[in-house]
Structures are given as structure tokens and as C-alpha cells.
Design a protein that fits this description.
The protein is an alpha+beta fold. It is built from three helices and five strands; from the N terminus they run βααββαββ. Helices cover 23% and strands 21% of the residues. A five-stranded antiparallel sheet has the order 1-2-3-5-4, with helices on one face.
Length: 181
């Protein structure tokens, strides 16, 4: 018997995907991240906005024809980390003050406002990773005397062998077969 590897303390969840550096790839990154967070039971709104901005930046400023960008989400303890890696390590993102009439240039300011922490990490040439972290709310413990969910249907009762009016006949006991006569 092979021993099971030791697991880190707390929950560790991760999700990663490679996407094309196009507007469609950026939209898909946001949709996939939102669905993954929903399946994990985590808040989605702030993270979805951050993913949208980082993925859009990767598709716009980090685009190299023929090279994808990567989206990575992982949760360790009470922190969600979002990473977007592209192949333009020579173009580091810099927050800037956008002109009031400009339609662009506010992405990193939005990330900085929504994230608890964010930054840029150089990767293996020619990559860079822009990351953001969100501290997750602590799970609520059940309150005493609070309503709790219970059974939603009648308890299971094994079949008695008798057929109800609109019911298929019961299955034969295990090991017993029917003849085709």
C-alpha cells in the first residue's frame, strides 16, 4: 500500500487554464474564473473584476502572436490568489493616472482598489506574472437555535417486493436471473 502524501493545513484549491491573448480569451478567463469561484462557494464579484482587468491587459499589452496567457486561481487558507502570466516580460505594467476623457488606462487602478495586495513577478524569460490577492471572509459558524436544513423528502424505505399501480416490477434478488420463456 502506498502512503498518502501529507496535505498542507487548511484547504488548498487551484484552477489553471491557458487562453488565447484575444478579447475572447479575456472574456473566457472572467467567465471561467466566476464559475470556478461559484463552484468553490467563494465570493465572485471582486475577483471577477480583477480577472477581467488582468486578462484584458494580458490580451492587449502582453500579446505575442502564437503564445497564450495563463490564468491561475488558488486558495490557501483564507486567501484567494489570482495570477495572470503572459509572455511579454519586457513590458511591465505600471499604474498611471488616466486622463478624465480617456476610455483606457484605469485597469491597474481598479485592481489596486479591489485587491488587498497585488504585484508583478518576473518569470522564466520571456514571461511575467501579474498577481492579486483577496482575503476571504471567515466562514460563519452555525448559530445555536438557528433554523437548519433537514430532510427534504421522505426517508428511504427498501422495496417490499410488491408492485405499486404505476411502478416497474421489483428487481430480482442478487444472483438470481430470469429465464426468457
Amino acid at each position: 500500500m502506498i502512503p498518502e502524501p501529507a496535505r498542507p493545513e487548511g484547504h488548498f484549491r487551484n484552477f489553471s487554464v491557458l487562453l488565447s491573448p484575444t478579447p475572447r480569451g479575456a472574456r473566457l478567463a472572467r467567465l471561467l474564473a466566476t464559475e470556478q469561484l461559484r463552484s468553490w462557494g467563494l465570493p465572485q464579484e471582486r475577483a471577477a473584476h480583477i480577472v477581467a482587468e488582468l486578462a484584458n491587459n494580458a490580451a492587449t499589452h502582453g500579446r505575442v502572436p502564437g503564445r497564450n496567457f495563463a490564468l491561475l486561481l488558488y486558495v490557501v487558507g483564507g486567501t484567494l490568489r489570482i495570477e495572470v502570466t503572459d509572455t511579454r516580460g519586457d513590458r511591465l505594467p505600471l499604474p498611471r493616472q488616466a486622463a478624465s476623457e480617456s476610455e483606457a488606462g484605469r485597469g491597474l487602478a481598479l485592481v489596486a482598489a479591489l485587491a488587498d495586495r497585488w504585484g508583478v513577478a518576473p518569470g522564466l524569460h520571456p514571461r511575467k506574472t501579474v498577481w492579486a490577492e483577496l482575503t476571504l471572509p471567515a466562514p460563519e459558524s452555525p448559530k445555536p437555535n438557528a433554523p437548519r436544513s433537514g430532510q427534504t423528502c421522505a426517508p428511504y424505505e427498501p422495496p417490499t417486493g410488491e408492485k405499486a399501480p404505476d411502478q416497474a416490477p421489483p428487481l430480482p434478488p442478487a444472483g438470481q436471473t430470469h429465464s426468457r420463456e
